[in-house]
Amino acid sequence: MLAVDALTGEEYLELKSKSKTEDVSEYFASLVSDCVQEGYNKLSIILDNNSTHKMKMQLQLQTHLSNLNIQDKIIV
């Protein structure tokens, strides 16, 4: 997986094909936190239909966002 800024083309992260759900969801939570701190009011994350992007990912991401106290900033 490769995370890229759509405006600048800057690469933020590239995960190995065997990355665990916890690793990916923790990264997304960190990305959301950074965007909130930067003052962004919208962030679109597009995922393919990989099985790690299903319920386990959503639940894990919600947990990370709650721990960062920014769960109200994103719709999962």
Structure commentary:
The chain is mostly helical. The protein has one domain. The chain is built from two helices and two strands; from the N terminus they run ββαα. Strands 1-2 form a two-stranded antiparallel sheet. The mean pLDDT is 78.
Summarize the structure.
By secondary structure, this protein is mainly alpha-helical. 41% of the residues lie in helices and 9% in strands.
Which terms would index this structure?
76 residues, 2 helices
Q: How many domains is the backbone divided into?
A: 1
With strands numbered from the N-terminus, the spatial order across the biggest sheet is 1-2
Residue fraction in strands: 5-15%
Summed over residues and divided by their number, the pLDDT gives a mean of 78
Secondary-structure topology with pairs:
Layout: E1 2-4, E2 11-14, H1 21-38, H2 55-67
